[in-house]
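Quick one: structure for this chain?
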Amino acid sequence: MKVKLNRRTIQVFEGAQVKHALLKYFIVKKLNKDFIDQTEVHDAEGHVIDHDAPLTENQKITFEEPQP
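Got it. Here's what it folds into:
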């Protein structure tokens, strides 16, 4: 299933949660995975969503990337 995370399309498994998409994004972008738990994620309407929230096909989510 595809989701859009910060304008980047990520392929995740069916039934994935926000935390799974974040993990894949952090690995691909070579970001420090220690920041995942501190990351505030927003849906397409700007609402904060939980890391355990389920994802749906073509869902758009955003977060502010940690600065190096």
